[in-house]
Every structure is written in structure tokens, then in C-alpha cells.
Amino acid sequence: MNRRASPGRAAARLLAALAAACVLCAAARGEPGYVGDDTCLTCHDGVQEHYEETVHARVLGPEHGRTDLARHGCESCHGPGEAHVAASGEDLAGLRSFRGDGPAAVAGENGACLSCHARGERLHWAGSPHASRDVACASCHTVMRKQSPRHLLAGHTEIETCTSCHLVQRARLLRNAHMPLREGNMSCSSCHNPHGTPSVSLLRYDTVNDTCTSCHAGKRGPFLWEHAPVTESCLNCHDPHGTVRDHMLKLSVPRLCQQCHIETLHPTEARRPDSRFVIGAACNQCHVNIHGSNHPSGMAFTR
Amino acid sequence: MGARPGHGARCLLAGAALALAAAGVPGARRAAAEGSANGTIEVGGRTISGDWGSSKFEEYRDLRPGAFADGSLSLENGDRSHYFQAWLDDIGEADQRYLLQGGRYDFWRLELGYDELPHVFSNEARSLWFRQGSDALVLPDSLQSRLQALGATGGTALQSEGLGAALAGSPVRSLEFELREGHASFEAHPFDSLELLAGYGLQDRQGTRPSWLGFGSPGGHFVGSAAPIDERIHEVNGALRFVRDAYNVELGYTGSFFRNHLESLTVDNPIVAVDAPGAASRGQISLDPDNSAQTLRLAGAATLPLGFPAHASATVSYGWRRQNEDFLCPTVNTAFLVSPSGSCALLGSAGAVPLPATSLDGDVRTLFGQLVLTARPHSRLNLTARYRLYDYDNRTPALVFPAHVVNDQTLAEETRISVPNQYRRQNASFDASLRVWKGVTLRGAFLWELWDRSRDREVARLNEYGGRFALDAHPARWLQLRADYEFGIRRGSDYRTFAYLERTLLPSEVEAASQSGQFTELRKLDEADRDRRRVRLLAQIMPRPDLTLGLTGGYERNDYDATSYGLTNFEGWSVGVDADWQLLERLGIAAWYTWEDLEYHQRSRWRPRTFTPPVIVVDDFANDWSSRSSDQVQSAGLRVDLVIVPDRLDAGLGFEIEHARGTTRTDGVPGFVTAPPGAPGADGGAAFDFPTLADGFQALTTTLNYHVTDRITLRAQYRYERYDVTDFRHDDLDPFEPTSNVNGSGVVSPSLDVFLADRVGDYNAHLFAFSVLYEF
Fold first, then answer.
1. Please, are residues B43 and B91 in contact by the beta-carbon 8 Å criterion?
2. By CA distance, what is A261's nearest residue in B?
3. Taking residues B230-242, what's their average pLDDT?
4. Chain B 121-180, CB below 8 Å of chain A: which residues?
5. pLDDT above 60 for B21
6. What distance in Å separates the CA atoms of residue B743 and residue B727, rounded to the nearest whole number?
7. With the C-alpha atoms ordered A5, A7, A8, A10, is the resulting torsion angle positive or negative?
8. ∠ CA B350-B327-B456, rounded to 5°
9. What pTM was computed for the model?
């Protein structure tokens, strides 16, 4: 960095001196350590325009803040600025920059966010996969700028934001058998809550099956005749992020069924590719109710 | 797509949107006189050329030529405390989406949403059956009579020929349904510490989907059909959250109620006109029954007073699942019913056999619990302990059916007992992370999982122990690395191959059934002993402030060493790279590429048997075969954003491409140990590779925006899409496939199968769209 004096630098120092004067005003109002938004904007006026577009501009500050903390405006998130101003802006002096690296800095920054956002979807943040890997809130959200229609996401869309790390999942959206994510009718948060949930894989519901059957409720049962692997987990047969095979199956039928069935009533042949046990819907052409049957004669899932 | 709005209707809707905008914007501005009103309206038209008739082109969307309109609106009052926002996408089209929300920032919010989603399976399916009433697919009686007579006089060969001739005239059917979804939710924070949520959602599905129904077993035939759908899901939820600095508590409820207006689907058998024992003129399958799932949830989290940062959270949820749909009769074959129009009692050899119950009275209770403790006893050390329990307690009564009818054709006077399957799954982990150096953290975790299953499963208890080691390194601002290695060793208790038979049959029948049941050396993949290893890598590099590079990779291997049959091995790996570069102030480029490879190895055995007593099963190593299924997929994307003339002209280019290959190779010893007398004499162990499946998708999108003024933009868009699929199972499938009834030796028997022929074709489409975007 060029440390030589310049007119710009001199102006900055002058502004800092003015800001320092405001610090005294703040202290006089009995708010030690806080300097107020006007002081911050003395130097950081460039952020004002895009910050004004965010929801934070509507809920932070002396006019809108609902809590003591929220009434501090910029300092609600960045922390008290007095020391920073006193250092003429040369040193962060304890301010949170939200660019910190390392677990401690991330924990501090996330703590600042959670001081307001602990409720709602963040109830299970502590101990969640993203929290335990020190993922910063600011990795996925642009707090100072509105780049997405909702939720101040770092990407233009939710999928873009999530797949900036989960690249393979982005690729799977292009698979032949896929759910309507790339068409915009679903998003990652339709099934997952990235802020933490009690269940596995940050699923919104208690189990994989509860998540799937929130839309595919007909497969929920209980059925008169249960297919046990279905009852336990849809993932035994399907990959919901997209597959090359029909119906988001991990393997094509009949090979999928033949992984667990080597019986005689149904001679488990390797089968020829032109056989009715392979073409069309293969096994499901008779075993149509493979997710379970409620028919008194449906024990083989054919009714 | 008869259900979709037509071109004229969409033009009208788009015009109406424009008119509303013209009239509404000043009104909105006046309404927000002291506040602000802004938004966008985009109205335009699109045209398509190329070959875009494939159902894949409109699988989840509506891109037909015509007018289109999108819009958004944001209103705020003077002091910016209250707001209203609306997003309107694809107005009037079959994939339209609307979202409205309003409220007071940080106090309350009301949201209303409505979506439509077309789901097109195939627009080339062919079926001779036509719908009669709400739940029957029928054929002309004359056709059934003619085919039955052909069978009587000329045998199956002539019948097959007649069926083929009839099916040649099968009309094309579109298999698709429309999902309409609406929701309303309300969220309020009357006090800073209190949060209330309430919501209601409705999903409605109407249309058709592929379905099948089999007649006769073994050696029977089946009919593919376009089954009607008429379903609704109502979801109600609510929550009360109390949040303080040191703790929070949540009480929540979710209720999901599934209503299927169709209980069954009845399909005519093409080759039988009159019911008789061994011959059904129609068959009936049950459709998804009405059911409900309700869950009550209590969750809380608290900071622990331990002198160092520590936190605990716990969740308990209790669920009820009910299903009590009236049973269908065991058959619609009148030859087996005591009273075809009355009760469902079967006409057994010793008299009437009634159903044991009129409905299931299905009752499942679920219990989910989780406890998480996190602590930072030292600034460099983080500890996390987690325990999770899921108990699926199935209280549905086991019903004893003294008789049933196999595929509506054969009365089987044998006892079958329904099994209410249940299980309990517990897992726990203990995770410690230690910051060993500035920006470098090592992590280690112990993992444990236990399954307890009901006695109808082969393995009652399945234990898995494992561990995870991870390195998170952020040695410099420009470099971040994450690497994980995870392993798991799963072992089960004794594998009881005939556990299911022991629960569903009378004890006296188990031994005989076991002789021809599952292969005793098979271990099913979800219950088998397994050794699992997984490696994941993520690197993010920022060599310059305007350039971000990413590298991801993963490898997973599951070995099922304790079994030689069933799934024996799974191996998968992936690599991916991505780059995001703001090359110039006015030029940004992003690109990514991934390769993924998945491979499954399995082994099986052809086990011919006699179908008439005495039961003889040939179990010989010579009839073994093995199969290797693998998928290789490459995907890539590119995005370029260019500002040509600042504030006047900009352009965007996006390109995505995917190419996938799915192979199934099979190996088997040529020749076979012959089947016993009375069993099919095919060489079931002979190996045949399946033709390779392949699909490719590419989409190129270019957009040019000319900003006429600050508020008005003219937009021109060109999009090219291409989809190619090669799938031997569907590509040339016709309703009648004369050689479909072929055995392992290649011997063809006359076919009576009816396929749905639900092909999905290739497409290539050039879309041109022009629109006007007005921002206010």
C-alpha cells in the first residue's frame, strides 16, 4: 500500500477528526463507544446507496430499531466505532469488518448476525454442519447490498448461492431425471434449511421420507402391504438431486430390484435387453404399487 | 396441452398486465404518496423454431410461442416501516407463479403465493383404452370378445396377432398433470421476544400419469395405461417461538392431509370378455389412499452457564399418521365374488370368505428427538456432541387374509398376514475441532448409528461405527481449503433370509415357501454388512480480488464384503472446477465443469424351479451372473456479462451443457444347469449387455438489453436448446411388441403385453423473445 501523504489522505484525516468530534457528542449522550451513523458515513458514504435498498436500512437505526442494539444503525452489526474513529480509521480497532478469516472471526461475525436473527430458521444454527465448519453468514448473504430479490443472497438466486460451494449438486440439476429446480419451481430451501435443522442433511422435516412425502403424500402410507425399504428411506432407490436413470432412480429397473431380490417365483435372470422385464417400465409393469399397496390382494404390490 | 391457456388468452393476459401497469403505476405512486413505489413490468412475445415437439421440452415449464409478461412491485410507506411486495412470473402461462407479501418490517408479515407447474411425462404415449367414469379405463366389448374368441380358436399365437393388429390403431395420449399450489402464511413478532407463525398450503394435481396392471402370474401379460390423477394435499402449520438472549423455545404443529378423489383404477383385459376363474375381463389396482400426518414439535436452545461459551439445543416431535381408507374388494372378477354387487366376500371352497376388516385402521406414531451440545472450553477448541432418535412405531393391526386373488385371475386360498413394519434409528456423534495454527483447524469425529427393526426384516439390529477427520485451512485471505475423510463400519446381527415369510405366512407354510423363496446367500443392501469410505475436497482460491477459483472433488466407496450376492460394491467419484472472473470493469466471466462417475457392482443367480409340486429349485453356481452398471456424466457452464455501452447497452451470454452415459454390462458363464421338469428352460445365467443409455442437454442463452431511458429497456433474447436421448427401453417402444415375451435363451413366445409406448423424443429449439421492460 502506498503510505505517502496525498490530498485525499489529508481529507480523510480531516473527516476523521470531524468524526472524532461526534464521538464526544455520543459520549455526552451516555452511549459510550458508539458514534452513530452520521459519523460512519463521514468516511463510508459510498456504501449508502446500495445499503438503502436492503431491509437492514429499514430495521436498524435510531428511527426504526426495535431494540437497543438495533437502534445503533451501522454499529448494530459492526460494533461500537469509537475506537475506530479515534484511530482516524487507520485501524479497525475491534470493529467487525465481516471479512474476517479464521474460526474466531467468523464466530464473532455470525454472533453479531444472530444477536437479531437467532429466532426463526436459525433456531438450530449452533452445532449445524455449516456452523461447525465455520461458514460465515456473509459467505451466503450480502448484508449491505441487495443482489437477489429476497433474503439478501450473495448470488442472484438461491441455487446460485448454494452451488457456489456445492458444485456437483449444480451439475446434477442438469441431469435427465431431475426435479424442477432449474426451471425455477423449486429451490434448495424447498427441502433444506441451510441454517440448521434437527434432522440429517439439513432437511426441513424430521426424516428423508417426511421431506419427500410433504409433496408426494400419497406414498406416505401406512399401507396394508408395506415395502419395508420404502418405509425406511426413499434414498434406498432414488437420488433426489437428479440422475441419469428414469424417475431419479439410482439404477434402472430391473437391475435396481435385482440388488435385493434373488427369488425363484420370479426367476432372477440377467434378462435380454428386448425382454418385457427390461423394456418400458420393466418390473413395475406388474409391480405397479411398489411404494406400498392398500389392496387386499396387493401383497406383491401388483394391485 | 389442452388444459393450458391458449395463445389468445395469454395475449389478452399480457395485454391486461400492460394495461394494469399503465393504469396502476400512477395509482400505486399516489397510494404511496409519501413513500415509494417501484417495480418492473416486462411484456413481450416469443417465437420458436426447430423441432420442439418433445415432451421433454415442456416437462416442467410452458415456453410455447405467444405473449408473455412478468412483473414486480414494491411499495413502502413514508417512514419505510410498512411494505408490500409482489412478484408475478409467467403471467397466464401454465407455469405461472405469483407471490405477494406485505407487513411491517420486523413486526409482522403476510404472504400469499400461487404456483402452477406442468409435469409432462410424454406426449407420444399411445393407448386404446378410454376413460369411463372417474376411475375406469375400458375397451369396446366387441374387441374383448373378438380377441377372446381368437384365443379359443387359434390359441395364444392368433390372439397375439389379433391384439397386435388392434393396438396398431392406438391413439396418441398425452401423459401430463398440472400441479397447482397455493399458500398463505402469517408471521408476527408482537414482542421482540415472541414470534408467531401460521400457514396453510394446498397442492392440487389433475391429469394423467403412466400406470400399469398385470393379468396372470406367472407368464401373464400386462396393460400400460394413462391413469387419471385427482389429488389434493392440505398442509397446515403453526409455531410459537419465544426468544431471549440466553434461551429460546419453539412449539410447533404441522398437519398434512392427503385426499385422493380416486380410490382405484379399473382396466379392461384386452383378451378376456367374460369373467371366469383364471380369466378376468378387467383388473383393478388400488391408488394411493387418503392419509394424514400430524406432528407436534417442541424445541429449545439455551446458553449453558459453564464459564465458557457453551450451548445446548433439544428437539422432540411426536407424530400421528393415520390411514383408514375403505378396502377395495379382493378382486373385480365376478367369478370369485359371492355377490358381485354386494359384499366383498370371496367364494371359497368352504364357503364365503369375507375380508377381515373393512379398512386398515392404519396408525403410526413417530417420535423424533435430538439433543446437541456445543462448547468452546478453549479459544482453540470446539466440541459438539449430538444424539438423534427416530422411532417409527407402527400400531396398525396385522390383518389375516384367509384368501386372496392373484391378479384378479386366480383364487389363492392361502393365508397371508399383513405386517406393520416398524423401526427405530438412533445416531450419535462427538466432534472436536482444534485450531492448531492460525487459520488451520483439525477436526475429528466419532460417529455411531443403530437400527432396530421389526422382526419382519432380515436383520433386527444393525450397528455402524465410524469416524470423520477434517482439515479446514484458511492460511491466507486468498486461500481456503476443506478436506474430509469419513469412514463407517456397519455390522448386523444374524441375517434371517425368511424373516418376512415367517411373519406373513402361517408357521406350517413357512418351510415349503422358504424352499422357493429368497436366495439364502443374498444380503440386501440396506441391511448388509458394509464398509464405507468417503473423501471430499473443497478449495477456493482468490489469486486476485477480481478472480475466484474453486476446486471440488469427492470419492466414495461402499464395500459389501460379507455377501457375494446382491449389491457387492458401489464406487463413485466426482471432480469439479469453477472460476469467476471480473475480467474488466465491464466484463465478467464465470465458468464451471464437473465430471461424475458412479458404478454399482452386483451379483445374482438364476434359480429355475418347478411350479407344480414337488417344488424343486436348481441352485447352481453355473447359473450365476454379475452386472456392472455405471453412469458417467460431464457437465459444464459458462456465463459472460458484458456492458457494451455504460447505462445504454449490455449483454449476457449463458451456456450449459451436460452429457451422460449409462451402461449396464453383464457377465455370466455361458451355458446353464438345466431347469427341472416343468420349469422354464431358459438360460437365465447367460449374460447380455444392455445398450448404452445416453442423454445430452445444451442450452445457449444470449440477451441484449438496450436501455432507452432510465426506466425503459428493450430486451432481445435468443435461446438455443438441444436435448438428445438414447434409451433402448423407450425409444422405439410401440403399444405392441411382438417379441417382448422372450426368455434368456432367446425363445420368443406370443406376446399379449400392452405397453404404454410413452416415448420421450429429442428436441432442438431456437427461441426468440423480444420484450419491453419498464422500471418505475
1. no
2. B518
3. 97
4. none
5. no
6. 21
7. positive
8. 80
9. 0.92
Residue type, B340: P
Contact B607 A263 (CB under 8 A): yes
Closest-CA distance of chain B to residue A175, Å: 7
Give the residue-averaged pLDDT of A66-91. Answer: 91
Q: What are phi and psi of B513, to 5 degrees?
A: -65, -35
Mean pLDDT of B185-196: 92
Q: Do B524 and A260 touch (CB under 8 A)?
A: yes
Residue in chain B nearest A172 by alpha carbon: B635
Q: Are B607 and B618 in contact (CB under 8 A)?
A: yes
Mean pLDDT, rounded, for A118-139: 89
B585 within 8 A of B546, measured Cβ to Cβ: no
Is B438 touching A (CB cutoff 8 A)?
yes
Over residues B700-741, the pLDDT tens digits come to: 999 999 999 999 999 999 999 999 999 999 999 999 999 999
CA distance A234 to A209: 6
B67 CB-near residues (< 8 Å, 6+ apart): B7, B10, B11, B13, B14, B15, B43, B44, B45
B467: its cell numbers: 469416524
Q: Which among A126, A274, A295 has CB closest to B286?
A: A295
Q: Are A110 and A143 in contact (CB under 8 A)?
A: no
Residue with cell 422372450: B742
CA angle B155, B156, B159 (to 5 degrees): 95
pLDDT tens-digit readout, B319-331: 999 999 999 999 9
B659/A270: higher pLDDT: B659
Q: Which residues of B touch A149 (CB under 8 A)?
A: 72, 87
Q: Do the chains contact at A295 and B287, CB–CB below 8 Å? A: no
Place of cell 428352460: B681
Q: How far is A170 from chain B (nearest CA, A)?
A: 9
Q: Band the pLDDT of A3: cuts 50, 70, 90.
A: very low
Mutate to test the interface with A, among B373, B534, B633 (most CBs of A within 10 A): B633
Q: What is the predicted ipTM?
A: 0.93
For A268, the closest chain B residue by CA position comes to B606
CB contact under 8 A, B214 and A302: yes
Helix (H) or strand (E) holding B247: strand B247-260
Question: How far, in whole angstroms, is CA A107 from its chain's centroid?
Answer: 17
CA distance A176 to A257: 21
Supply B540's cell numbers: 477456493
Note every long-range contact of B30-36, with CB atoms under 8 Å and residues 24 or more positions apart, other chains counting. Answer: B31/B75, B32/B75, B32/B76, B32/B77, B33/B78, B34/B77, B34/B78, B35/B75, B35/B76, B35/B77, B35/B78, B35/B80, B36/B74, B36/B75, B36/B76, B36/B80
